[in-house]
């Protein structure tokens, strides 16, 4: 019995020593409402290094002081491990390109690589001084959400983003075609992607973009508006995207004949916008098979002839814009 008691004491001492050793590498945990918040010293240093490369005109990061970075605005830590898992420093107003919506300016430091547990990054609606999207972002392998929209990036999209195989949400929306890609085959490696927004990205010289997009089997939302896709191949087959619910390829000036083998057989589509594209030819009968459709915009094209009678099958349709400034026969 005495031996058993001694063993218990030894175990207790060992646990205490382990706890003390661990505290030398991690900050002490604070408890709030039964939840654990913490700040790991190396991650706090990485965040401060990141901040040092920025100009904070709107005082967005004014709370970034003190030891506990988990209490800083825009920083979210795991309640279980204390690691920083989310960085949300988006600007104050993304609703338009007018007004003082740029808040942060400067450069994005590679110190973010020391935050290897990040699964969410959103620096959207800021002004990163016309720098390129950093290649190192492709090394943050745990990322599931990345929003780089409207942040004044320019230049080529780094293909290293294709290394983010866990990514589910990617938003690269830009204004005035500031960023571009000549080869987006890297998209095919985003095997978990569900939401892809490349609105305004110059894809006029992108090769093999259709096969790359068509391999994104988990994709639910695809936005390729204003991408200068007018020189794309005659066939726009997206037949593998059986999970797709939203498709926006508006404002691309295709000036091509509308053919049945494009996207009309994607019966799961709920939102389709192909407006301002110069499509011509008859309304495809296959449109009546899109029975999940909620919103449909075919405006400012040159579709002619009778609207298919089977459009009455679209019982869930809430909004339908068939033509603007063009006449059709009904």
TrEMBL record:
Record domain Leucine-rich repeat-containing N-terminal plant-type: where: 41-78
Cellular compartments annotated: Membrane
GO CC annotation, single: membrane
Record carries keyword GTP-binding: no
Alphabetical UniProt keywords: Glycoprotein, Leucine-rich repeat, Membrane, Repeat, Signal, Transmembrane, Transmembrane helix
Membrane topology category: Single-pass type I membrane protein
Pfam families recorded: LRR_1, LRR_4, LRR_8, LRRNT_2
InterPro entries membership: Leu-rich_rpt, Leu-rich_rpt_4, LRR_dom_sf, LRR_N_plant-typ, RLP23-like
Entry keyword Signal: yes
Signal peptide location: 1-23
PANTHER family noted in UniProt: LEUCINE-RICH REPEAT-CONTAINING N-TERMINAL PLANT-TYPE DOMAIN-CONTAINING PROTEIN, LRR RECEPTOR-LIKE KINASE
Protein name: Leucine-rich repeat-containing N-terminal plant-type domain-containing protein
Species per Swiss-Prot/TrEMBL record: Lolium multiflorum (Italian ryegrass)
